[in-house]
Design a protein that fits this description.
Blueprint (H helix, E strand, L loop, with lengths): L1 E7 L3 E8 L4 H11 L8 E8 L5 E4 L7 E4 L5 E4 L5 H21 L6
Antiparallel strand pairs: 1-2, 2-3, 3-4, 3-5, 5-6
Length: 111
């Protein structure tokens, strides 16, 4: 799992996280989308952090569609998969580690 980038807004931050080891049915769906151009490195999730409360929440395109695949043209395709609470917690812990490390180094990441 890698933090691809994040967007800063007035009230929230949105973290775009690359994920791997997705279920085989998502791999098959992405292969149907991209055919020969399929890449196993193009899956991700979005996590939002409320700046006021510090609370992290999973972003879904629609209920139950919390993993996306980026096709070879750069379009996001939200896939039918709901992350478990444990999966979300693991991703949030990783984001927090990255944020704390970046803040200590004075990173300009996310501008």
């Amino acid at each position: 799992m890698d933090l691809e980038h994040f967007d800063k807004f007035e009230n929230a931050e949105v973290y775009w996280v690359d994920v791997s080891r997705v279920p085989e049915r998502l791999v098959e769906e992405a292969k149907r989308i991209d055919g020969a151009d399929y890449s196993g490195e193009c899956f991700g999730v979005c996590i939002q952090r409320d700046k006021k409360t510090g609370k992290f929440d999973l972003i879904e395109d629609s209920p139950g569609h919390s993993v996306y695949y980026v096709d070879n043209l750069g379009y996001l395709h939200w896939l039918d998969y709901r992350l478990t609470e444990q999966e979300v917690e693991k991703i949030v812990r990783k984001i927090i580690m990255i944020i704390e490390g970046a803040c200590g180094e004075g990173s300009g990441h996310g501008d």
